[in-house]
Amino acid sequence: MLSANLGYKVGRGTVANVLNRNGIEPAPERNKRTKWSTFLKAHWKRFAASDFLTVEVWTGRGLVTYYLLFVISLADRVGAHSRNHDSTGRSVNAAAGSNSQ
């Protein structure tokens, strides 16, 4: 079997083993019996939430809009953010609030 999205060849038995290890039934039964709770338990370590937001701040240069992309892993609640940029395109160090060129 060829995974069209990733370009890897994966055997049918390999897929069946992975599904079985994660408590997911084979395809004919899966459509009939899998509950959301089963699906969530099987995939919980892979779920993440993300948010893209802007914050407007008055600075010595006037009103500046900062852009932030934030992602958090739901399983272990570890978060990460992108390098912040202000409306002028400057990269900004969020922790120190200083500009880095």
List the helices and strands and how they pair.
Blueprint: H1 12-21, H2 27-33, H3 36-43, E1 48-59, E2 62-73, E3 79-81, E4 84-86, E5 91-93, E6 98-100
How would you describe this protein?
Strands 1, 2, 3, 4, 5 and 6 form a six-stranded antiparallel β-sheet that branches. The protein contains three helices and six strands; from the N terminus they run αααββββββ. The chain has two domains: 12-44, no CATH class; 48-100. It has helices at residues 12-21, 27-33, 36-43, and strands spanning 48-59, 62-73, 79-81, 84-86, 91-93, 98-100. With 101 residues, the protein is of the alpha+beta class. Helices cover 25% and strands 36% of the residues. It starts with 11 loop residues before the first helix and ends with a strand. The chain is elongated, with a radius of gyration of 22 Å.
List keywords for this structure.
101 residues, elongated
As for the number of domains, it is 2
Gyration radius, rounded: 22 Å
Q: How many strands, which pairing sense, and closed or not: the largest β-sheet?
A: 6 strands, antiparallel
Return the average pLDDT rounded to an integer: 75
Unreliable sequence segments: 95-101
Name the helix and strand elements from N-terminus to C-terminus, one letter apiece.
HHHEEEEEE
Beta-strand fraction estimate: 35-45%
Question: How is this structure best summarized?
Answer:
The protein is an alpha+beta fold and 101 residues long. The chain is 25% helix and 36% strand.
